[in-house]
Amino acid sequence: MGERLIYMSGKFVPQSEAKVSVFDHGFLYGDGIFEGLRVYEGNIYKSREHLIRLYESAKSIMLDIPMTIDELEEVMVETVKKNDLRNAYIRLVISRGPGDLGLDPFTCKNPEIIIIADQVRLFPQELYDKGLDIVTVPTRRNTPDALNPKIKSLNYLNNVLVKIEARRAGVLEALMLNHEGYVCEGSGDNIFLVKKGKLITPPTYLGALEGITRETVMELAKAKGYEVVETPFTRHDVYVADECFLTGTAAEVIPVISVDDRIVGDGTPGPVTKELIQSYRQVVTEDGRQVYPEKVVNITA
Ligand code: PMP
């Protein structure tokens, strides 16, 4: 496989030449924002929703993206096309850009816009069939009044610490609690419980990203007639849930079968989780931006 072509502020450059300045405040301070999207069979799933979240994060940190949302969507499509991908992961990164060594972001005149499209690193199917063991970790979620987790910022150290604690506990993912002990989310995914046929997820004001997969899953579940409630819950509620699963662009819908060594439900992916895994996989080729519309053949004609 040849080198990927990376979009960097107006140009496509080979991966080996795609470099940022050591004075870039994204590198020096985590000053920037990002998005992660998936392409399924040439469809950038919920492209607009991801871009809107990106522009909202930018507004919150007072970073002016020097492109309209339409222009950014077009270069994203172009990046997928140039790399000849039909199924891919897209990483959009907007850093504050190069400035001086001080914190002041107003020394950074040119935000760096980076788009990487690459093969998706899929989780093994076995994890979806058997489910994940996870733990809760001592590291708490950033409080919304300190650094709001709704901002998808380049400052992911909170999440990295959680990943370290998960790996040291011998599992792949972990749950963060907020400063009051309520469950927030995983290091890179939102959490759902199923109890007595009802779906429960924490409200994002507790300290969680407004996940696009979370939103999709809530819509799918409601359409199937399930009651969905956003309410705070504790570790105890997770231990005694009938089912538990995580959601995210990369992970999609992934079952959890134990938390802190407590078996959830009967220790296998539950029926509601399985149903939602299936439905999610069905909708991802719809509702997005087609990368290769010229190649869509109308076979019903
Ligand atoms: N929470 C965090 C902290 C994340 O990084 C992600 C992944 N972007 C999610 C939740 C899931 O969000 P989405 O469904 O939009 O990918």
UniProtKB/TrEMBL annotation:
It holds the Pfam family Aminotran_4. It comes from the Bacteria. Its EC number is 2.6.1.42. It catalyses: L-isoleucine + 2-oxoglutarate = (S)-3-methyl-2-oxopentanoate + L-glutamate; L-valine + 2-oxoglutarate = 3-methyl-2-oxobutanoate + L-glutamate; L-leucine + 2-oxoglutarate = 4-methyl-2-oxopentanoate + L-glutamate. One of its GO terms (molecular function) is branched-chain-amino-acid transaminase activity. Its cofactor is pyridoxal 5'-phosphate. InterPro entries: Aminotrans_IV, Aminotrans_IV_CS, Aminotransferase-like, B_amino_transI, BCAT-like_C, BCAT-like_N, Class-IV_PLP-Dep_Aminotrnsfr. The keyword Amino-acid biosynthesis applies. Keywords: Amino-acid biosynthesis, Aminotransferase, Branched-chain amino acid biosynthesis, Pyridoxal phosphate, Transferase. Pathway: Amino-acid biosynthesis; L-valine biosynthesis; L-valine from pyruvate: step 4/4; Amino-acid biosynthesis; L-leucine biosynthesis; L-leucine from 3-methyl-2-oxobutanoate: step 4/4; Amino-acid biosynthesis; L-isoleucine biosynthesis; L-isoleucine from 2-oxobutanoate: step 4/4. Acts on leucine, isoleucine and valine. Belongs to the class-IV pyridoxal-phosphate-dependent aminotransferase family. PANTHER family: AMINO-ACID AMINOTRANSFERASE, AMINODEOXYCHORISMATE LYASE. This is Branched-chain-amino-acid aminotransferase.
